[in-house]
């Protein structure tokens, strides 16, 4: 380069100093599953480092109360971003193909949305955490947060390192916080393990692992081990209970108290989400219309479904053992179908709105960050609804509502 | 590292201040590899002042992005030059554009970041490497010569029967792909729902692999390395599906070939099935009388395992430690087969220890 050459020939030490003042990145090797505790601590699953990080973001939040999320009364959500991947790419100086959005979580007290993102698809991809502030994308400065971490993946020992760098990893698929503890679900690339990891926060370096054997209703006579993909902890009749979803889509109920270190647990299989489908997220919510507690489960190949927690609590174990015929479809505990498909990530913002990263129903190339009115996770504009037609009926007076103008 | 970068940067800035104005007749943008900065040359002084006073007048983007948003940058004026320090290192092999909108000058200045060496990746090995594998094989590994890009497995792997028909959705598609940290080895999980006996997909569609049939696993030529270089030609792996393996692992039934004391001949194990090569390297260890791990060179193809010690064997008892998590290619473990009759799955938490007596 002629530019470099000119430097060499000049050979002069500069007198002008330039201070680069970007915040230093925290030592994230990768950023996947996200969760908040009940306060301001953000947990980040770092598959590459084999750890879960905890960042106490304390004063880093900006209250989003003034940001209008839509109009739930008329079933109208709000698109916060079209082409979210392109917008993130622009912020990070990469092409949209180099951007991977791994997870999304909402900080409930401030309603701020947080995203874990990779810049690049190679082993040296940079991991960043982004937040949405008043409809703007921002890089989260993790360097000023109190940080701690705990190992969850395989820990290389000196003797093993002699045979080269370890190849095994635990892909962390979900983190959930409940009452001073986190539960970490993951899939190993070398073992088909059913271990569930449970650890206290603040971290004590103790990881309790339980081995869970489950009945598959679809298995009829057979039982098996399998890794949990996504999970949520809820109190069923006052008993803290893990509701776990597996890759081949059974829904399993396990009282948290049974998950002690080294325990071998048989979960109660209470439902089946239908095969040919992988669950993505399981998110608890309260139906503000009737006060009931529920979870919503999003899927790769089927639209989302809501499960009422009272029904989950009393659901009978699905039949199993000799002579039981296999189940192929949605079975067991009642699943209320929701008009929500194409969802890549989902969380709730408050009692009236959820937020979703989804492929636009009108153009699947367009990845949207979009709010959905609850409790039906339904945006009228997404659907062919006769009330949307120019001369269609309007029994609920949607059309008389003034057009929405967002701040 | 940061300090070195700082010094280089100082030198760059100093050199720039000495470049005569006549040498930079028109406005242009250049990427400086040493510092990672972009240098804008040829701006009028007032234009530079405008930009420094209002940084929104400059946007740095990857070429072709349709958005008003620019990358976060720091700006610094130095003589006739404007130094742009991007928030993140610009990506190799990528074209960027600096969009300027100042009075008297609106233009897009293009610059390219040189691509790294474009080494063409190859598929180097596949495991299990045996020509006949169990029909209920759960896990396969594909190794590559270069780090590969994440997020493409769903589109680049095809499993074909001998008659050329395609096996539909044989692999489990999880959100995250199962790569090793260097991204040179990927784990493929055959859909457990289809392997497990009596499961809906298994009953309805049958297992992905049927005993006695021949298969071809094709990795598409379009599969790209982390630096976006494709394989260039399809890679084909052939195997035949044999009998399903549904027994728990029993280390007692392994054949152990003991070397003589004083030699550095390998100790060799012949398994009664195909074990998982990834798990074997980690979960099978040999210790000496004092409980110290025996170091050396390990070789395994899953059917056998050998360790050539770095020091000669001594007379006495050695211990083969088999961790409870060890699995064969079908996911069977010591505690239990992959799937079993209800109520029969057990769980083994302790390692199994096999004694190996070495004598003269």
Tell me what the structure shows:
With 407 residues, chain A is mainly beta. Chain A has four helices and 26 strands. Helix content of chain A is 7%, strand content 41%. In chain A, strands 10, 11, 12, 13, 14, 15, 16, 17, 18 and 22 form a ten-stranded mixed beta sheet that branches. A four-stranded antiparallel beta sheet of chain A has the order 1-2-3-9, with no helix packed on it. The termini of chain A are far apart. Chain B has three domains: 2-112, Sandwich (Immunoglobulin-like), CATH 2.60.40.1220; 123-242, Sandwich (Immunoglobulin-like), CATH 2.60.40; 251-358, Immunoglobulin-like, CATH 2.60.40. Chain B is built from six helices and 23 strands. Chain B has a four-stranded antiparallel beta sheet with strand order 1-2-5-4. Chain B has a four-stranded antiparallel beta sheet with strand order 8-10-13-12, with no helix packed on it. Chain B is elongated. At the A-B interface, helix 1, helix 2, strand 13 and strand 14 of A face helix 1, strand 3, strand 4, strand 5 and strand 12 of B. Strand 14 of chain A pairs antiparallel with strand 22 of chain B, so a sheet runs across the interface.
The tally of helices of chain B reads 6
Mean pLDDT of chain B: 87
Largest interface: A-B, 94 and 98 residues
Residues in helix, % of chain B:
10-25%
Please identify, by name, the CATH architecture of the largest domain in chain B. Sandwich
Low-confidence stretches of chain B: 20-24
Question: What is Rg of chain B?
Answer: 30 Å
Secondary-structure-derived class of chain B: mainly beta
β-strand number of chain A? 26
Tally of separate domains of chain A: 1
Q: Strand count, sense and closure of the main sheet of chain B?
A: 4 strands, antiparallel
Topology:
The complex is a heterodimer of chains A (407) and B (360).
Chain A: H1 2-10, E1 34-36, E2 41-46, E3 51-56, E4 79-81, H2 84-92, E5 99-107, E6 112-119, E7 126-133, E8 136-139, E9 146-151, H3 158-161, E10 170-178, E11 181-188, E12 195-200, E13 208-215, E14 222-225, E15 228-236, E16 239-246, E17 250-255, E18 264-273, E19 279-286, E20 293-299, E21 305-308, H4 309-314, E22 330-332, E23 336-337, E24 343-348, E25 353-359, E26 367-373
Parallel strand pairs in A: 13-18
Antiparallel strand pairs in A: 1-2, 2-3, 3-9, 4-26, 5-6, 6-7, 7-8, 10-11, 11-12, 12-13, 13-14, 15-16, 16-17, 17-18, 18-22, 19-20, 20-21, 21-23, 24-25, 25-26
Chain B: H1 2-18, E1 28-31, E2 38-41, H2 45-53, E3 58-62, E4 73-78, E5 81-86, E6 95-102, E7 105-112, E8 123-127, E9 132-134, E10 139-144, H3 153-156, E11 157-161, E12 178-179, E13 185-189, H4 192-195, H5 200-205, E14 214-219, E15 235-242, E16 255-257, E17 267-270, H6 277-283, E18 284-287, E19 296-300, E20 304-309, E21 316-322, E22 339-341, E23 352-358
Parallel strand pairs in B: 9-15
Antiparallel strand pairs in B: 1-2, 2-5, 3-6, 4-5, 6-7, 8-10, 10-13, 11-14, 12-13, 14-15, 16-17, 17-20, 18-21, 19-20, 21-23
């Amino acid at each position: 380069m002629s530019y470099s050459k000119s430097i060499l020939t000049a050979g002069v030490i500069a007198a002008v100093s330039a201070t680069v003042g970007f915040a230093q990145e925290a030592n994230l090797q990768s950023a996947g599953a996200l969760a908040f505790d009940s306060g301001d601590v953000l947990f980040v699953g770092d598959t590459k480092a084999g750890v879960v990080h905890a960042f106490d973001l304390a004063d880093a939040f900006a209250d989003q109360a003034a940001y209008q999320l839509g109009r739930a009364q008329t079933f109208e959500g709000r698109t916060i971003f079209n082409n979210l991947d392109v917008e993130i790419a622009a912020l990070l100086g990469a092409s949209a193909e180099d951007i991977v959005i791994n997870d999304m979580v909402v900080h409930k007290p401030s309603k701020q949305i947080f995203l874990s993102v990779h810049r690049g698809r190679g082993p040296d991809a940079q991991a960043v955490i982004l937040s949405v502030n008043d409809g703007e994308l921002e890089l989260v400065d993790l360097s000023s947060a109190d940080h701690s971490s705990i190992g969850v993946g395989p820990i290389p020992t000196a003797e093993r390192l002699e045979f080269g760098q370890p190849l095994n990893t635990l892909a962390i698929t979900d983190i959930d916080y409940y009452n001073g503890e986190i539960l970490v679900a993951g899939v190993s690339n070398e073992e088909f393990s059913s271990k569930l990891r449970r650890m206290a926060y603040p971290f004590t370096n103790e990881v309790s692992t339980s081995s869970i054997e489950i009945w598959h209703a679809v298995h009829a006579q057979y039982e098996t081990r399998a890794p949990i993909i996504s999970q949520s902890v809820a109190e069923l009749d006052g008993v803290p209970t893990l509701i776990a979803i597996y890759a081949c889509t059974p829904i399993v109920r396990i009282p948290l108290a049974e998950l002690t270190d080294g325990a071998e647990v048989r979960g109660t299989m209470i439902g089946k989400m239908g095969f040919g489908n992988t669950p993505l997220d399981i998110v608890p919510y309260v139906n503000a219309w009737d006060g009931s507690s529920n979870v919503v489960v999003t899927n790769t190949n089927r639209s989302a479904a809501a499960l009422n927690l009272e029904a989950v609590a009393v659901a009978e174990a699905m039949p199993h053992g000799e002579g039981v015929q296999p189940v192929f479809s949605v079975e067991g505990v009642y699943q209320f179908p929701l008009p929500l498909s194409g969802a890549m990530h989902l969380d709730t913002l408050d009692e009236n709105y959820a937020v979703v990263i989804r492929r636009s129903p009108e153009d699947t190339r367009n990845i949207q960050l979009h709010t959905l009115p609850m409790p039906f996770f339904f945006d009228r504009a997404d659907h062919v609804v006769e009330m949307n037609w120019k001369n269609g009926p309007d029994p609920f007076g949607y059309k008389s509502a003034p057009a929405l103008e967002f701040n | 590292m940061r300090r070195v970068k700082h010094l280089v940067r100082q030198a760059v800035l100093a050199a720039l201040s000495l470049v005569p104005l006549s040498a930079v007749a028109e406005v242009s943008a250049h990427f400086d590899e040493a510092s990672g900065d972009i240098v804008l040359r040829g701006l009028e002084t007032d234009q530079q002042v405008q930009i420094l006073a209002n940084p929104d007048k400059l946007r740095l983007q990857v070429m072709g992005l349709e958005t008003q948003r620019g990358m976060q940058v720091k700006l610094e004026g130095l003589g006739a030059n404007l130094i742009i320090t991007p928030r993140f290192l610009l990506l190799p092999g990528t074209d960027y554009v600096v969009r300027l909108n100042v009075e008297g000058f609106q233009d897009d200045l293009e610059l390219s970041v040189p691509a790294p060496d474009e080494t063409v990746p190859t598929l180097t090995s596949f495991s299990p490497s045996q020509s006949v594998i169990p029909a209920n094989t759960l896990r396969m590994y594909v190794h590559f010569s270069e780090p590969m890009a994440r997020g493409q497995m769903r589109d680049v792997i095809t499993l074909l029967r001998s008659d050329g028909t395609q096996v539909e959705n044989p692999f489990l598609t999880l959100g995250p792909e199962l790569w090793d940290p260097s991204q040179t080895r990927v784990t493929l999980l055959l859909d457990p729902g289809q392997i497990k006996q009596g499961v809906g997909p298994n009953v309805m569609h049958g297992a992905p692999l049927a005993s006695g049939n021949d298969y071809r696993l094709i990795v598409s030529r379009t599969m790209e390395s982390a630096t976006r270089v494709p394989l260039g030609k399809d890679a084909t792996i052939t195997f035949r599906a044999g009998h399903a393996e549904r027994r728990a692992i029993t280390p007692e039934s392994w054949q152990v070939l003991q070397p003589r004391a004083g030699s550095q001949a390998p100790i060799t194990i012949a398994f009664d099935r195909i074990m998982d090569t990834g798990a074997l390297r980690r979960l099978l260890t040999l210790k000496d009388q004092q409980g110290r791990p025996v170091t050396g060179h390990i070789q395994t193809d899953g059917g056998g395992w050998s360790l050539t010690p770095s020091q000669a064997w001594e007379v006495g008892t050695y211990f083969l430690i088999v961790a409870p998590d060890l699995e064969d290619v079908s996911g069977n473990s010591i505690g239990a087969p992959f799937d079993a009759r209800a109520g029969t799955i057990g769980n083994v938490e302790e390692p199994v220890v096999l004694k190996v007596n070495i004598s003269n």
